[in-house]
Write a structure and sequence with these properties.
It holds the Pfam family Transpeptidase. One of its GO terms (cellular component) is plasma membrane. The chain is an alpha+beta fold. The chain has three domains: 75-253, Penicillin binding protein transpeptidase fold; 339-607, Beta-lactamase (3-Layer(aba) Sandwich), CATH 3.40.710.10; 622-689, no CATH class. Helix 8 crosses helix 10 (223-239), helix 10 runs antiparallel to helix 11 (245-253) and helix 14 runs antiparallel to helix 21 (595-607). The longest helix has 43 residues, at 2-44.
Length: 690
């Protein structure tokens, strides 16, 4: 019997030794596996934390004007910008040992397993905040073993490479709170209309309870369930000493006011403008489409909401619903190029094509200020005269000819000044100037003004027959308005990424492009379209809108068979309006031909209302003298009309007008014959007085 017992003991000992060896080997293998896993996780490094987030667009004063997203509202905020109450509530109800574990709460896992076994069903979760964050970032919510293993690996990588604060910040910015709101900022804005930093204990404890089941615990959908869940959250906070029993009770009794609205409306503010902003982000900043749409950027634009409203009101109130004509408007600050208002068409939903920046149209006579600036560089002055009469020009060594026509075939049949040619938009004068300067002169000057569109070196270029973009033309006038300094259209002031880093900030140009004195002379001549003193063989082209204007303006209209333009400015604002049909059919209706000028006048007056009335300040190198508008000579007291006109010093006229002094000899007046003086005596007296 003892022998048998000894044999059994030896056999048992053998099994024990084998078990110990196997256990030891398994432990070593587990240790090796764990070491390999940790090493592999370390080699892979930090997993990327980028998640889709809404890009938000702001107006120039910081108001939200729109956002770009994929149907999910996500706004990343730093941990410091989340209320302590919400942070404490989340930790209390989701992961009370968050700061003490390394991604896995073993005690909680064991408790969950026991509870599930007792209930013979899945009744209790054990996921930590880190595990939930890993799931939100990289995985779906399916319940396969593969997903759980992958989740565990990502959890390990997160804990090894990020601080607890970074993990908590990421979790709070990605967790789903229902109603398309991802993250605490989107949820706080949706449910309570405030930022996450401003949440009270009562509000925070409601929000902290939602992620367990957004469909079941939304206070908007199931208020009673949300309140019951709030009690659990507050009880957990009290148990963990985050709050007192009195504070918990007070929070439960606090009446909640729910908003149920996302901060940005579904309909964009200034949709054509926002399209232009996104185009600038892609083409000028080099951002890809996904970053623009879902990068969580904060884009601070140049849009002035009041001016945008004035632009849209001008369109709505002036353009008839009976007409199918299209129109566009751009308004800029000439000092820095910031685009403050933009309308790209009459209805964005019907046609998102942005005519303000995409369409290439003939500018008509709005090109003339660029031509005449070139003429000033070649020695022209406002008093330079050319003959206005029907003229046929030959070119290409006589092989081709061109005959421009004035509006309604009205010609002076005599000499007119440059100042009057601009005010009356005399086409013959323009083509003569263009041919005199050389057909390449206007092209080179246009480049100086920032015109990038290709222009054709032909006689008709002086009348704007080569297509340009509206944005280019308005910017060119902005250069005149600011006295000749380089400026470019600006839609974006600053872009901030989801981390709060400034990734782009606009720096304005300060380079001088034009001679300041010549730019002022050109501006002063452009005020002439609103001055009836320059009426001649036709009326000044601004006559129709003159009664609406209450401050000094400079500008130029332009017309082609299929385009109608008005571009003008004050020292504070430059704006252009185009009207026409998309497929370049002729503008036939009289009403359609007036829209550009009327919209421009209404917009300028309304958008500048309340701002100081500013004139154009003369530069040091110019001199203003009174001239007779019909001939450009110095005016005498006998000239029926005298207009102050500015010239570069040294180029002003020195000859006096004698036409009207001579006419005075034959005029009857109330003086007796003895009192009348011969015309030459009047002239000598006037000369001596000067």
């Amino acid at each position: 019997m003892e022998l048998i017992t000894g044999q059994n003991f030896k056999r048992t000992a053998k099994y024990i030794r084998a078990a110990v060896i196997i256990a030891g080997l398994m432990s070593i293998l587990l240790l090796l596996a764990a070491f390999s896993l940790f090493t592999y996780a370390k080699i892979l490094g930090a997993p990327p934390l980028a998640v889709p987030q809404s890009t938000i667009f702001f107006s120039e004063n910081g108001d939200v004007i729109g956002e770009s997203d994929n149907g999910q509202k996500r706004y990343w905020v730093k941990l410091d910008d989340i209320s302590k109450e919400l942070i404490d509530a989340t930790i209390a109800v989701e992961d009370q040992h968050f700061y003490n574990h390394y991604g896995f709460d073993m005690k909680r896992i064991a408790g969950a397993v026991i509870a599930d076994v007792r209930a013979m069903a899945k009744v209790q979760g054990a996921s930590t905040i880190t595990q939930q964050y890993a799931r939100n970032l990289f995985l779906g919510h399916d319940k396969t073993w593969q997903r759980k293993i992958t989740e565990a690996f990502y959890t390990l990588r997160l804990e090894m490479n990020y601080s607890k604060e970074e993990i908590l910040e990421g979790y709070l910015n990605t967790i789903y709170y229902g109603h398309r709101a991802y993250g605490v900022e989107a949820a706080s804005q949706y449910y309570f209309g405030k930022s996450a930093k401003e949440l009270t204990l009562a509000q925070a404890s409601i929000l902290a309870g939602i992620p367990k089941g957004p469909a079941n615990y939304s206070p908007l959908e199931h208020f009673d369930r949300a309140k019951n869940r709030q009690s659990i959250v507050l009880k957990s906070m009290e148990k963990q000493k985050f709050i007192t029993a009195a504070e918990a009770e007070e929070a439960k009794l606090t009446k909640l006011t729910l908003t149920g609205k996302h901060p940005s409306s579904e309909e964009k503010t200034a949709p054509y403008f926002q399209d232009a902003v996104q185009k600038a982000m892609k083409n000028e900043l080099g951002l890809d489409e996904r970053t623009i749409q879902l990068g969580g950027l904060k884009v601070y634009t140049t849009l002035n909401k009041e001016k945008q409203k004035a632009a849209e009101e001008a369109f709505d109130s002036i353009m008839s619903d009976r007409s199918e004509i299209q129109a566009a408007l751009i308004a800029m600050n000439p000092k820095n190029g910031e685009v403050e208002a933009l309308v790209g068409g009459r209805n964005y939903k019907e046609s998102p094509f942005n005519r303000a920046i995409q369409a290439v149209r003939q500018p008509g006579s709005t090109i003339k200020p660029l031509l005449y600036y070139s003429a000033l560089e070649k020695g022209f002055t406002p008093s330079t005269t050319l003959r206005s009469e029907k003229t046929t020009f030959t070119f290409d060594d006589g092989a081709s000819s061109y005959t421009p026509h004035n509006f309604n075939h009205q010609y002076a049949e005599g000499n007119i000044t440059l100042a009057q040619a601009i005010a009356l938009s005399d086409n013959v004068y323009a083509v003569k100037t263009h041919m005199f300067l050389g057909e390449d002169a206007l092209i080179e000057t246009a480049k100086k003004f920032g015109i990038a569109s290709k222009l054709s070196a032909v006689p008709s270029l002086a009348l704007g027959t080569s297509g340009v973009r509206m944005l280019e033309m308005v910017n060119a006038y902005g250069i005149l308005a600011n006295g000749g300094k380089e400026v470019e259209p600006v839609f974006i002031k600053q872009v901030v990424n989801h981390k709060g880093d400034v990734i782009y900030k606009h720096e304005p140009h300060k380079k001088r492009l034009l001679d300041a004195d010549k730019a002022y002379v050109m501006t002063q001549m452009l005020t002439g379209i609103f001055d009836k003193k320059l009426n001649g063989h036709a009326s000044v082209t601004g006559t129709a809108i003159l009664p609406q204007l209450t401050r000094p303006y400079a500008g130029k209209s332009g017309t082609t068979p299929s385009d109608s333009w008005m571009i003008g400015y004050t020292p504070q604002l430059v704006a252009g309006v185009w009207a026409g049909f998309d497929h370049s059919q002729r503008i036939e209706a009289a009403e359609d031909k007036t829209y550009a000028k009327k919209i421009w006048a209404r917009f300028m007056e309304n958008s500048l209302e309340g701002e100081p009335v500013k004139g154009f300040k003369p530069t040091e190198g110019v001199r203003g003298v009174k001239v007779d508008p019909t001939n450009g000579l110095l005016a005498t007291e006998d000239c029926p009309v005298a207009r102050t006109t500015y010239f570069e010093k040294g180029t002003e006229p020195t000859e006096y007008c004698t036409v009207h002094i001579h006419d005075g000899l034959f005029q009857n007046d109330s003086k007796t014959p003895a009192e009348k003086k011969a015309w030459y005596k009047k002239f000598l007296e006037f000369w001596d007085s000067e």
